[in-house]
Amino acid sequence: MTPTYLRSGIFLAPFHALDENPTLAIERDIELVQHLDRLGYHEAWIGEHHSGGFEIIAAPEVFIATVAERTRHIRLGTGVVSLPYHNPFILADRMVLLDHLTRGRAMFGVGPGALVHDAKKIGIEAADQRPYMNRALDSIVRLLNGETVTETTEWYRLVDARLQLPCYSRPVMEMAVAASRSPVGALAAGRHGIGMLSIGGTSPEAMKQHARNWAIYEEQAAEHGKTADRRNWRLVSMFHVAETREQARANVRFGLERFAQYFRDVGTFPIVPAGIGDAYEYLLDNQAACIGTPDDAIAYITQLLAGAGGFGSILELAHNWADFPATLRHFELMARYVLPHFQHSREWREESYGFARGHSEEFRSQSQAAVQAEIDRRRVE
């Protein structure tokens, strides 16, 4: 099914420069999610990282439990929890608790782990991360469905493991698998019929890979008796908007180059390759991000929808390219002028306005005649 309504959200790793106070940086992340809740954003996905210095939320479940108490509507997902780092029974049990604590606002996003250094610290080789994720995900899905699981793997053992609580959300809490350039995430998500979180950029070349992964998802879903629904496909992209293109470019001078350098130095793939002198020019030339006005963002999302053939949610990567006030203003502009275009929330107003304008002379004449009739009636009395 091709969605006609585009949901909105963020993908919050987060990314914070090394010269910042980490406590205050995390507090700003909480403030950002509160801001998005007030603006009507649908969801926020929170990452898990343990090394590298920039991405400093180690336990997305703890962050979600905190921010859930300070928000009202926004749904909150692990984006993503790295399955090889956890015992699947304990993790599933924690997520069920979070589902109850949030009254169904929690979402369970999973992946193999993005940073090799994280895995190395607990003795896991990079080559094992994706197979480990698949094994753990199979067990977690069974546990959430109320099954009893006995299983022995290279890094965990389950003996008659069964959850003591069902999910608050029925039949189970919403789940999604991260999918980037490899097909592993699409294979796992399609096999279980759960959501897919496409990360890894939105340049035209990246969009071709995302579209291929969705085709794999559809094949796997059909093979395992699941329904492939594009409303469960979320695409992560990069934006910064301001009132003018010049202002947007000035805003991202604050942190774009440090963000690009982090991915050159630490990240699993360089968003801006080494040797590029101007990250801003590179991202725009390669159509890998939108830095401009709300109209530019509308055009860019329209292009992404066409390249993918449709998806259910657009997730903005929370990147701190701009300082915090400009970042908050960016999200306000997106909520006021960009997202309504894809959520069809303005058309009825426009139709109502157009009808009233088209009949304005008639309605004015009727109003004036009614007033005059009352005046004349009063004179007679």
Main attributes of the structure:
381 residues; two-stranded antiparallel sheet; 2 domains; alpha/beta
Oligomeric form: single chain
CATH homolog superfamily of the largest domain: Luciferase-like domain
Give the radius of gyration: 24 Å
Q: What profile does the largest beta sheet have? A: 8 strands, parallel, barrel
Q: Choose one word for the global shape.
A: globular
What level of helicity do the residues show?
40-55%
Cα(first) to Cα(last) distance is: 67 Å
Number of domains: 2
Q: Please list the strands of the largest sheet in the order they lie side by side.
A: 1-2-3-4-7-8-9-12
Structural class comes to: alpha/beta
Q: What is the number of strand segments?
A: 12
Number of helices: 14
Strand content: 15-25%
Walk me through what this model shows:
- There is one protein chain.
- By secondary structure, the protein is an alpha/beta fold.
- The chain has 2 domains: 343 residues, Alpha-Beta Barrel (TIM Barrel); 32 residues.
- Helices cover 49% and strands 15% of the residues.
- It has 14 helices and 12 strands.
- An 8-stranded parallel beta barrel has the order 1-2-3-4-7-8-9-12, surrounded by 7 helices.
- Strand 1, helix 1 and strand 2 form a beta-alpha-beta unit.
- Helix 1 packs parallel to helix 12 and helix 2 packs parallel to helix 3.
- The longest helix has 21 residues.
- The radius of gyration is 24 Å and the shape is globular.
- The protein starts with 6 loop residues before the first strand and ends with a helix.
- The model has no long low-confidence stretch (mean pLDDT 96).
